[in-house]
């Protein structure tokens, strides 16, 4: 397939992957069902626990059964989980719906990026990965911005509407996946060898033994945990007495989050050229954490802090995937990326569970400040022992 056609299909896939209709209201749905902050934190931990448990099996599916089939399953399973949330009324059914949603996400996690990298490589354009992924994410975020406005308004009229419509959009996403070209991970090896756990362990060891990779991944895992707990409590903070926005306006706020994040994602390659990946990780995440620390004394910073969070995380995640992809064997790329996502899931479980309890004890603003301080201490220590070589582009693509 020509590179231009491949890009267009990926961009259309990214557009229909959006879950913007429910993004600004899914926590509000939990509150509307009478759940406490601790309950919400617990459900967030359940969601990420399922992600962690399912990451490796679904990563193997992406490598062994085909990445296109895995992406198809992602769309279908996610649609079932999100549609189920529309009708769940109590803690257990809500947990079940979130668990199905999480399983669907794991079919996509790592697999979509591995498919894109390999498809571009087959076209001789692997060096455009950062650019193509960044643009694709920008389109997804732009679609999320538009649908977030609609979702906030729909929710204020009929709580279940954003969830049912999102399930329908994911059905369209599944149809687009059918048009994707299949990619070959490694024609020189049999699938049975790629399937073996010993191969995964060897390739993961190869990745983690490279200078600075362990500490860099640990750093991004901590950042992911902080971002995830903040995302959980955006809605209670901006709708609650801390900011006081009406529910119908939350969609517009989420739209602004995503517009800024889309701009940041689209310029990721430019940031890489000018600031450098090392410079980015030295400054941007620490600015975010610092803004969270100020929230208890300056609640008005909540909105700009959350806007900055979306932009910072989009660029950071693109750089993280680039660094891991460049140092990972072709045949195991989806599985290795799933292992990295697994580490982020453990961080999210911890941050969300602790965050829910702390929010009930002291309020969500002070909770975010405390966890941001934890991030700054841990991430600072990890970055201090990370050599700058890890942030440089790897020249050799590993295939053996």
Automatic annotation (TrEMBL):
PROSITE patterns: MFS
Matching InterPro entries: MFS (IPR011701), MFS_DHA3_Transporter (IPR053160), MFS_dom (IPR020846), MFS_trans_sf (IPR036259)
Transmembrane segments: 12-34, 40-60, 72-103, 138-156, 163-183, 216-234, 246-268, 280-313, 334-359, 365-385
GO molecular function, one term: transmembrane transporter activity
Domain (Major facilitator superfamily (MFS) profile): residue spans on this chain: 1-185
Keywords assigned: Membrane, Transmembrane, Transmembrane helix
PANTHER family assigned: PERMEASE, MAJOR FACILITATOR SUPERFAMILY-RELATED, TRANSPORT PROTEIN-RELATED
UniProt-recorded name of the protein: MFS transporter
């Amino acid at each position: 397939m020509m590179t231009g056609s491949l890009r267009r299909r990926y961009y259309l896939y990214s557009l229909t992957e959006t879950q913007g209709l429910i993004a600004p209201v899914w926590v509000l749905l939990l509150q509307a069902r009478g759940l406490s902050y601790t309950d919400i934190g617990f459900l967030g931990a359940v969601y990420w626990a399922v992600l962690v448990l399912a990451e490796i099996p679904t990563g193997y599916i992406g490598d062994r059964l085909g990445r296109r089939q895995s992406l198809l399953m992602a769309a279908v399973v996610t649609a079932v989980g999100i549609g189920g949330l529309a009708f769940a009324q109590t803690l257990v059914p809500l947990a079940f719906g979130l668990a199905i949603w999480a399983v669907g996400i794991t079919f996509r996690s790592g697999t979509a990026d591995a498919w894109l990298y390999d498809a571009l490589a087959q076209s001789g354009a692997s060096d455009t990965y950062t650019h193509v992924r960044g643009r694709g994410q920008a389109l997804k975020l732009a679609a999320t911005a538009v649908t977030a406005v609609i979702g906030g308004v729909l929710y204020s009229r009929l709580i279940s509407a954003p969830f049912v419509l999102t399930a329908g959009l994911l059905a369209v996403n599944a149809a687009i996946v059918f048009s994707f070209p299949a990619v070959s991970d490694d024609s020189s090896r049999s699938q049975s060898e790629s399937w073996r756990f010993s191969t995964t362990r060897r390739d993961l060891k190869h990745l983690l033994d490279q200078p600075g990779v362990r500490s860099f991944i640990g750093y991004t895992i901590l950042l992911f945990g902080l971002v995830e707990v903040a995302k959980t409590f955006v809605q209670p903070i901006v709708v609650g007495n801390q900011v006081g926005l009406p529910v119908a306006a939350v969609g517009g706020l989420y739209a602004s989050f995503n517009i800024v994040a889309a701009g940041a994602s689209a310029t990721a390659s430019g940031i890489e050229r000018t600031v450098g990946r090392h410079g980015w990780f030295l400054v941007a995440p620490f600015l975010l954490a610092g803004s969270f620390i100020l929230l208890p004394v300056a609640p008005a910073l909540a909105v700009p802090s959350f806007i900055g969070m979306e932009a910072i995380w989009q660029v950071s995640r693109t750089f993280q995937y680039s660094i891991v992809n460049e140092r990972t064997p072709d045949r195991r790329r989806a599985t290795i990326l799933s292992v990295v996502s697994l580490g982020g899931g453990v961080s999210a479980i911890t941050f969300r569970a602790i965050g829910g309890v702390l929010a009930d004890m002291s309020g969500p603003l002070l909770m975010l400040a405390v966890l941001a301080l934890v991030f700054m201490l841990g991430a600072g220590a990890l970055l201090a022992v990370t050599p700058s070589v890890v942030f440089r582009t790897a020249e050799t693509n590993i295939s053996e």
